[in-house]
Amino acid sequence: MVSSKIFAAAALASIASAIDHQVKVGSGGNVYSPSTIPGVAVGDTVSFQFQGTVHNVVQSSFSSPCTPMDNGFSVPFQSSSDTFTVNVTTTDAIWFYCSYQNHCNLGMVGVINPGTGQTQGAFASAAKGATVSQPKSNSAVGGVLGSG
After folding, report:
1. 13 within some domain
2. Cα 148 from Cα 131, distance rounded (Å)
3. Which Gene3D superfamilies has this protein been placed in (predicted)?
4. Which of 23, 29, 50, 56 has its CA 20 to 30 A from that of 143?
5. Residue 10: inside a domain
6. What letter would DSSP give residue 135?
7. What share of the chain is helix, strand, coil (3-state, %, to 5)?
8. How would you classify the pairing of strands 82-87 and 144-147?
């Protein structure tokens, strides 16, 4: 009984200490701001806040920029003040891009928890020549879309 209370208290403390990392999408052009989000812990969230122009957020991999990752998160094109929130389940690097027109090729890419040698700048350079692919689903996958 005591151990279950300790476990419950630890779980609540973990939830209480979770941080929501906010990223503006399209504020000031075809950019994520910030485009690099370091130090995101398991249990934290990243909220992508759309700023009124047409963009989306699609998870990718470093080796295949501008291509949706199987079982990755994505949200359809947004042009409102909606927010797409992703729960972080790993401290590994999580790469993402905008699949609208040629935004990915122009450097609208980002990373959560970049690794050594795999920077947002290197990802943006690789994206310049990549073929931009759309996510398979036209609905939010791997996160929660809400008004914000």
Report:
1. no
2. 32
3. Cupredoxins - blue copper proteins
4. 29
5. no
6. -
7. 15, 35, 50
8. antiparallel
- 59: tokens are 């998870």
**How many domains are there within the chain?**
1
pLDDT at 101 over 70: yes
Q: Is 73 helix (H, G, I), strand (E, B) or coil?
A: coil
Reported as a pLDDT band with limits 50, 70 and 90, residue 17 is confident
Which residues in 6-20 are b (16+ Cβ under 10 Å) and which e?
eeeeeeeeeeeeeee
Burial of 51 (0-12, 13-18, 19+ CB in 10 A): middle
Asked if residue 57 belongs to a domain, the reply is yes
- 0.85 exceeded by pTM: yes
Helix (H, G, I), strand (E, B) or coil at 117: coil
At residue 21, does pLDDT exceed 70? yes
d(CA 73, CA 87): 10
**Domain extent at residue 142:** 19-147
Q: 98 lies in a domain?
A: yes
Are 43 and 18 in contact by the 8 Å Cβ rule? The answer is yes
